[in-house]
Amino acid sequence: MHSIFYYSHELATYDFGPDHPFKPERAQKTFELCRRYGVLDLQHMTLKDPPALEHEKLLLAHSEDYLEALRRVGQGEIFKEMLSFGIGPEDNPPLRGIYDWSRRCAGATWDGMIELLDKDTDIIFNPLGGFHHAFRSQAAGFCYINDIVIAIREALNHGLKITYMDIDAHHGDAVQDAFYREDGVQFISIHESGQYLYPYSGSVEESGDGKGEGFTVNIPLPPKTDDEVYLEVFHRIVLPLVKGFRPDVLVAQLGADTLVSDPLTDLMLTNNSYTEIVRELKGLCGKILATGGGGYDIYRTARCWTLAWAILNDVEPRDEFAGLVGGMMFGPEVEVSSLYDRPYTVKGPDKDKIRQEVDRTIRYLIRRHHLR
Ligand SMILES: [Zn+2]
């Protein structure tokens, strides 16, 4: 077994600005927490610096026009046409350095896939990746370069069969779009329903087209969905689908914005279900390429990603500094004793409504994919 953790302090301290919810700093918090819990000095692992992706590889997911616009923006140019590429004052600001930053974040995911082609490497984690909203010629949802599409394209060119599993609270729209008409990629996204949340897509009816028919699977969930309901959906739909497809590599976008504390979404998960899912995914495929993704409560996101890394490596995180007076405090002090959240369950009429809605979705998908 060999695993690789990609990290760069320089990339993790890149700043989208004080008012922007996207904080690359989460990767730094994850790195520090992993270190503190003794899961960055494992014998079988390598720590690797993200390489910058070459232009030719960027073309696996993006158009020349778009890349040229992004390159100019990265050099500090501001021009009217950038708006037509989704770059503007709101979600995707014209940041100096954004081209090189994105190229290296994506470089880690791509390099991870290349490493997995080697038979001795099984586990990859890039907490600076997972930009599932970046389209071919359009920046969107804080995403500029779609590292996931690039890495999957590379894998397809090597003849591999890929399952893409997206547990971010938002629908993985641009990844879906890239492979919608193909049968080499099984796309599964479990997310807060597009009726309520950006990017307003990902309904159960979106299930692929042409020879890709049936290879796209969307599982939208109502606001306030909790661990119990989430795990039921995962067990009844995702497990049998992935087992049936038998991928060579499982690409997992591990966005942590499904947590009850996340300021941008309305799902109510704790990291107990989050980690249970990571454990199950690990059991589904021998080779896993995991990326970060959303996660706007940065401390809890770092805890999720630390736990995910430990689980993917079959180790238990242990606090090397526990009991030290004046030891480092991490996040809310009361929670320092454990990386795991307290259980949380939604009850009452809300829960009944959620159950009914989710049961309908489960029945639909079971029929649609002949799961029984
Ligand atoms: Zn998200």
What would your notes on this structure say?
- The model is unreliable at 324-329 (pLDDT under 50).
- The chain is globular.
- It is α/β, with parallel strands linked by helices.
- Helices cover 37% and strands 11% of the residues.
- Helix 5 packs parallel to helix 6, helix 8 (227-245) runs parallel beside helix 9 and helix 9 packs parallel to helix 10.
- The chain has eleven helices and eight strands.
- The protein has helices spanning 9-12, 25-36, 55-58, 64-74, 98-117, 147-157, 173-179, 227-245, 271-284, 298-312, 349-368; strands at 3-6, 45-48, 123-126, 162-166, 185-192, 216-221, 249-253, 288-291.
- It has an eight-stranded parallel beta sheet, with helices on both faces.
- The protein has a single domain (3-321, 333-368), classed as Arginase, Chain A (3-Layer(aba) Sandwich), CATH 3.40.800.20.
- The two termini are 35 Å apart.
- Residues 168-170, 255, 257, 293-294 line the site of zinc ion.
Largest sheet: 8 strands, parallel
| Apparent shape | globular
- Rg result: 20 Å
Kindly state the percentage of residues in helix: 25-40%
Q: List bound small molecules.
A: zinc ion
Topology-level CATH name: Arginase, Chain A
Task: Give the tally of β-strands.
Answer: 8
Q: What is the annotated CATH architecture?
A: 3-Layer(aba) Sandwich
Order of SSEs, N→C? EHHEHHHEHEHEEHEHEHH
By CATH reckoning, the class would read Alpha Beta
Could you name the ranges where pLDDT drops below 50 across 5 or more consecutive residues?
Answer: 324-329
Count of runs of 4 or more consecutive helical residues: 11
How many discrete structural domains? 1
